[in-house]
Automatic annotation (TrEMBL):
It comes from Sinomicrobium oceani. Belongs to the KduI family. Zn(2+) binds at H196, H198, E203, H245. This is 4-deoxy-L-threo-5-hexosulose-uronate ketol-isomerase. It catalyses: 5-dehydro-4-deoxy-D-glucuronate = 3-deoxy-D-glycero-2,5-hexodiulosonate. HAMAP family: KduI. The keyword Signal does not apply. Keywords: Isomerase, Metal-binding, Zinc. It comes from the Bacteria.
Amino acid sequence: MTTSEFRYAANPADAKTYDTQKLRDEFLIEPVFREDEIKLTYSMYDRYIVGGAMPVKKDLVLETIPYLKSEHFLDRREMGVINVGATGTVTVDGVAYTLDKKEALYISKESKEVIFSASGEGQPLFYINSAPAHQKFQTKKIGKNEAEVIHLGDNKSANKRILNKLIVNSIVETCQLQMGLTELVEGNIWNTMPAHTHERRMEAYFYFDLDEGHSVCHFMGQPQETRHIFMQNHQAVLSPEWSIHSGAGTSNYSFIWGMAGENLDYGDMDVCPPNEMR
């Protein structure tokens, strides 16, 4: 079963007036996973879709959703999938791709049938991002050993982390979708600091590997008008082009960043020094 919900885009002048519940209603996506369901959130930020597939007792077939007005989900879109659970399988037009935890699959425009399956040993959790696409490329699996790995930060600043670029244009051809996975080293809590915006692209963050009882405080908003949302394991948050996207946890954790927009330049960002934020 495929279910969906819809989110309008927010004006930053309006967003700075939101109280806690309104911020959560507009930007937080919870839950991402529901048993035996493909759950999707369609956002008006670059028409980006965020969701999850959790096959427990049966295989899950990706169905189109009302907002797309298309026969198949991927008629005019591309999709990225990253498994954050036990080993599972994604079958695309009859070709099966086995994904271990933290492995990715890029699914091309015009793919007709996508099926998410458990492999029998443990529970796979398929995190999904999708964006409009103007061209058909090749469906491709990206294992962790194929990622572009960057080591960032240091223990002194509590932000030592390992960034794994998975679905990026230097590894797989895409129209606009990019996804990667960042792992905080034990004893480190800060991500994406110094914070930045990129007005030509929006972004979504998904937090995981966060132990029960712990939280991540996700910071958002314009650099001089910041807000925060406390988040738990397996929750996602939308980040508009005008917003920073940074966080600090009560322990180390991992997160997936996904983005779409006008370009594929990973370095296209406007950095805001920490002492200039408000």
